[in-house]
Amino acid sequence: MARYIGPKTKIARKFGEAIFGPDKVLSKKNYPPGQHGQGRRKKTSEYGIQLREKQKAKYTYGVLEKQFRNLYEKAQRKKGVTGEVLLQLLESRLDNIVYRLGMAPTRAGARQLVSHKHITVDGQIVNIASYHVRPGQVIAVREKNKSMEVINVSLDGFNHSKYPWIEWNASIMGGTFLHVPEREDIPENIKEQLIVELYSK
Fold this sequence. Notes:
Order of helices and strands: HHHHHHHEEEHEEH
CATH architecture of the largest domain: Orthogonal Bundle
Structural class: alpha+beta
Strand order of the largest sheet: 2-1-3-5-4
Number of domains: 2
CATH superfamily of the largest domain: Ribosomal protein S4/S9, N-terminal domain
């Protein structure tokens, strides 16, 4: 299963945002990496700005190029605004839902929980991080894994009311994917229209 395994702080500094989660180094060095990181930067072209936005979305959701392209083409075929539909498809991935439910502190951690068979969908084990969760489906921690420290530490004090499209149920240590989120409910700082413009060229 392909995934980005390179230096994460370097990427976060490139975008000036903690896209992989809390980062102590980023808070100290909030400028681009490299020896010229603090110097004057040359003006970025329109294409460069669009490419940068696509890369930020890919790194944020942990998706590689081919997968991201396939999701974009799927979004194009669906009704609605392509950029918004693309973000909704990314939000509907199983690893992202696990992360939104607070079962893991990062999407990378959520992906690991899924691939190690700690997560169930409607009572069935699913170990595919890119699995498309549909409204009404219930995502929960596998019964034998509910005492895992890493999951319980992540859930401790987590605010389950901040994502209105997911309903948490403490008794099953899981939640229901109520509906596809509206764009204004998705907190990621991504300008999806720039991605659409890039792929439209």
